[in-house]
Amino acid sequence: MDVAALSVSMNQASLKQAVGLQVLSIAKNQAEIQGQNLTQMLAQSLDPNLGKTLDIKV
């Protein structure tokens, strides 16, 4: 394998990693915003106890 082909391959792998990290960052930001919106919606609820507890039976 020649040096040029190895260099191209390494650059492609680096680009794939950078793109993957950026996509994960965008997804994380969207999840944080959705969580904040949900918290705000629950705070504005007519029933102040709504969403405070979770009853589970197994």
Give a structural overview.
The chain has 58 residues and is mostly helical. The protein has one helix and no strands. The chain has one helix at 3-43. The longest helix has 41 residues, at 3-43. It is elongated. The mean pLDDT is 87.
Task: Summarize the helices and strands and which ones pair or pack.
Layout: H1 3-43
Index terms:
single chain, 58 residues, mainly alpha, 1 helix, 71% helix, elongated, YjfB_motility
Helix/strand-derived category reads mainly alpha
Count up the helices.
1
Q: Please mark out the parts with pLDDT under 50 across 5 or more consecutive residues, or reply none.
A: none
Integer average pLDDT = 87
Strand content: under 5%
* Overall geometry: elongated
Order of helices and strands: H
Number of strands: 0
| N→C terminal distance | 60 Å
Radius of gyration, taken over Cα atoms and rounded to an integer in Å? 23 Å
Major β-sheet annotation: none
Percent in helix: over 70%
Question: What would a concise description of this structure say?
Answer:
With 58 residues, the protein is an all-alpha fold. 71% of the residues lie in helices and 0% in strands.
